[in-house]
Amino acid sequence: MGQIMAIDYGKTRTGIAVTDDIQLVASGIDTVETKKLLSFLEIYFEKNKVDEVVIGLPTDLKGNLSAVESDILNFIAVFEKEFPAVPVFRFDERFTSKIAAFFISQSGKSKKKREEKGLIDKVSATLILQNYLEQKQR
Q1: How many folded domains does the chain comprise?
Q2: Which helix (H) or strand (E) holds 4?
Q3: Closest listed residue to residue 91, CA positions, set 28, 32, 136
Q4: Run of H or E residues at 14
Q5: Distance, CA of 71 to CA of 22 (rounded, Å)
Q6: CATH classification at residue 70
Q7: Beta-carbon neighbour count of residue 21 at 10 Å?
Q8: What's the pLDDT score for residue 94?
Q9: Span 13-68, pLDDT tens digits
Q10: In the prediction, which pLDDT does 114 show?
Q11: The pTM is what?
Q12: Element of type H or E holding 18
């Protein structure tokens, strides 16, 4: 059994989280510049077995897709060509950034660390993955 990876895709930065090899625990691993995302994934997949990838589905309260969705769809098309053996799933990411910011604010980290956007992206990816795992277990 390999890992499950979550991607919180953004125009500038992308948060990444993975499970352990038995797919129980989600952990944020990195935030990468989106333009370097495919290179990061290529290196990561060479060193780690990833069974599937979950990519956030950005919607608002009314269920409308955000503007970044077209970029995400383009990324998925490229990803599926580059890594055809790794299935891609989508998962609603509504509120993950706000929840991530709240958790970080409660963590006791310094104000500078709490305002680091890359940390929010990484925690958001972790929340997407943890919620995905919980739904899978039901």
Answers
A1: 1
A2: strand 3-8
A3: 136
A4: strand 13-19
A5: 31
A6: 3.30.420.140
A7: 12
A8: 62
A9: 999 999 999 999 999 999 999 999 999 999 999 999 999 999 998 877 677 777 88
A10: 41
A11: 0.84
A12: strand 13-19
Answer yes or no: is pLDDT of 100 > 70: no
Token readout for 64 is 């409308």
Torsional class of 91: left (φ above 0), alpha (ψ -120 to 50), beta (otherwise): beta
CA angle 12, 86, 60 (to 5 degrees): 45
Give the side-chain half-sphere CA count within 13 A for 26. 22
Q: What range defines the domain where residue 120 resides?
A: 3-137
Q: 109 near 75, Cβ under 8 Å? A: no
Name the token pair of 11.
Answer: 């125009």
Task: Report the 3 state secondary structure along the chain.
Answer: CCEEEEEECCCCEEEEEEECCCCCCEEEEEEEEHHHHHHHHHHHHHHCCEEEEEEEECECCCCCECCCHHHHHHHHHHHHHHCCCCCEEEEECCCHHHHHHHHHHCCCCCHHHHCCHHHHHHHHHHHHHHHHHHHHHC
Token code pair at residue 95: 């509120």
Edge-to-edge strands, sheet with 3-8: 26-33, 13-19, 3-8, 50-57, 88-92
Q: Are 119 and 13 in contact (CB under 8 A)?
A: no
